[in-house]
Write a structure and sequence with these properties.
The complex is a heterodimer of chains A (130) and B (165). Chain A is of the alpha/beta class and 130 residues long. Chain A has one domain: Rossmann fold (3-Layer(aba) Sandwich). Chain A contains four helices and three strands, in the order βαβαβαα. In chain A, strands 1-2-3 form a three-stranded parallel beta sheet. In chain A, strand 1, helix 1 and strand 2 form a beta-alpha-beta unit. Chain A is globular, with a radius of gyration of 15 Å. With 165 residues, chain B is of the alpha/beta class. Chain B has a single domain, classed as NADH:ubiquinone oxidoreductase Nqo5 subunit (Beta Polymerase, domain 2, 2-Layer Sandwich), CATH 3.30.460. Chain B is built from three helices and seven strands, in the order αββαββββαβ. In chain B, the strands form two sheets. In chain B, strands 1-2-5-4-3 form a five-stranded mixed beta sheet, covered by helices on one side. In chain B, strands 6-7 form a two-stranded parallel ribbon. In chain B, strand 4 and strand 5 form a beta hairpin. Chain B starts with a helix and ends in a 40-residue tail after the last strand. At the A-B interface, loops of A face loops of B.
């Protein structure tokens, strides 16, 4: 929250507008603990995004289940969606989130146009069942 | 305290062989009963004018693995007019954990019994919709039973050195 606020302003880096629907979004930022019951919902939101799309896993719980190693918590969202950048921390500082966001921007700038049609990418999505 | 004792006496008078133990040591009287009379006892607590326990505060499951009847359900009732609380405990064997539902008396018991089923596997006969409420549907065991570990069973990368094993 502080990341979008006045002090650590994420809008400086181009992330002014939060999309109102995943169909209009480029980047999915998953923050917080995802329970196993929520996992198909996260996957559905990812499927609704249009290519090209990126995923930022913010926080320890979204990256790997965090401190909650239990029967009900999904041990990292990379079990259901392909993740591009992981931001560790519990909670991550705003500067860390901005750093993760800048790494996504680097990936966006350096990505080949053919990547989303390549067979490796298609195989990746198939491995996730998408 | 006067009223609590008279209530316990009335329960003894009516359900004598089913009441296994009465305990006054904690903040509310705790009555351990047999599972066969539990529905009649709760109906009596609710509908008898002298009792008036019209509010089911909570219902939860519990598992004592070393007891002869390990799985149990604890009900908390509250008499709103006289501000009296009572705790009713009943236990069932783990091979066939069945109890009558109290959804017909208290609608609040609907989700609470689903939670007890979800985590302990206690089957409430007569429940309108007994299925898992908090866990995922495909979970094939009952997590809160003591024989199951808290940790996620699907992790492959845990290092035993850090987990004291």
């Amino acid at each position: 929250m502080a990341t979008m606020g006045a002090h650590y302003d994420l809008a400086r880096f181009g992330s002014e507008r939060l999309s109102f629907s995943p169909r209009q979004a480029d980047l999915l930022m998953v923050m917080g603990t995802i329970a196993k019951k929520m996992a198909p919902v996260v996957q559905q939101v990812y499927i609704q995004m249009a290519e090209p799309r990126w995923v930022l896993a913010v926080g320890a719980c979204a990256s790997s289940g965090g401190i909650f190693d239990t029967y009900s918590v999904l041990q990292g969202i990379d079990r259901v969606v392909p993740v591009d950048v992981y931001v560790p921390g519990c909670p991550p500082r705003p500067e860390q989130i901005i750093d993760g966001f800048m790494k996504i921007q680097e990936l966006v700038g350096n990505e080949s146009i053919r990547r989303r049609n390549s067979p490796e990418y298609r195989q990746l999505l198939k491995d996730y069942g998408i | 305290m006067e009223s609590a004792k008279t209530i316990i006496e009335t329960l003894h008078a009516k359900f004598a062989p089913g009441i296994l133990k009465v305990d006054h040591s904690s903040d509310m009287p705790v009555v351990t009963v047999e599972s066969s009379i539990i529905h009649d006892l709760i109906r009596f607590l609710k509908e008898e004018p002298a009792m008036g326990f019209s509010f089911l505060t909570t219902l939860c499951g519990i598992h004592y693995p070393d007891d002869p009847l390990p799985l149990g359900v604890v009900y908390h009732f509250h008499n709103l007019e006289k501000n009296l609380r009572i705790r009713i405990r009943t236990f069932v064997p783990s091979e066939d954990p069945q109890l009558p539902t109290v959804t017909d008396l208290f609608s609040a018991a609907n989700w609470m019994e689903r939670e007890a089923y979800d985590f302990y596997g206690i089957v409430f006969t007569g429940h309108p919709n007994l299925k898992r409420i908090l866990n995922v549907e495909y979970l094939d065991y009952f997590p809160m039973r003591k024989e199951y570990p808290l940790e996620d069973p699907t992790r492959e990368d845990k290092d035993d050195r850090y987990f004291g094993r």
